[in-house]
Amino acid sequence: MPWPSRKRDKGAVSDKKEPDAKIAKTEEETLDKEEEEKSTKPPAGSSKSGWKNWKKTKESDAGGEESKITYCHWLLKSEPESRLEKGVDVKFSIDDLKAEPNQTTFWDGVRNYQARNFLRAMKLGQQAFFYHSNCKEPGIVGIVKIVKEAYPDHTQFDQKDPHYDSSSRKENPKWSMVDVQFVRMTKRFIPLSEIKAHYLAHKADGGPLKNMMLFTRQRLSIQPLTQEEFDFVLSLEEEKPH
């Protein structure tokens, strides 16, 4: 299942020329546009009230007990707008994923060690947010699930691929990829600016997004999420945009 090099933060392989090496997720080898700069001003309205209401609901559901912090969900960045990398368009939007056979493809092209390790930690069936990155308005557009756990990324051995790595050996591959499948679109687009407003409020009052890697490790194209982070962000799709 081809995966254009578009899914990462910045690298994507043209599915047109090489259907086998479709999307490579753009890693930090190409720096993201400063997405945070686009959202330095939180939207109007208090995010704390939203957090308090969400917290009350979660506490009643869980009997007020804090759950153990573990990473069981993910956020995957992909570029929805065309950008050439070594002559290859690394664009890959959620609509491109939906157009794949069985709405499934591989997430290749990751060339950052921490992001690679996160890929290797992914388990079958786990869900991830599909995040449009390096674009006019970055944010979460949908949900995908892991349908094949980590295996060697073939693009590291392809000299024609933008993510070719001459130092990697087939007997001991440096880079991995997983297969993902489209689950659904989020009920509405959840922009980075809105998530950041909640992050800043939670950082001050101890909410679930206080350590979210989307803001503490902005350039990582593969990011883990705790259950609490995933649930809170998902709850935002039910709210009217500010």
UniProtKB/TrEMBL annotation:
GO terms for cellular component: nucleus. It comes from the Eukaryota. CDD domains: EVE (cd21133). InterPro entries: 5hmC_binding (IPR052181), EVE_domain (IPR002740), PUA-like_sf (IPR015947), THYN1-like_EVE (IPR047197). Its main location: nucleus. Specifically binds 5-hydroxymethylcytosine (5hmC), suggesting that it acts as a specific reader of 5hmC. This is Thymocyte nuclear protein 1.
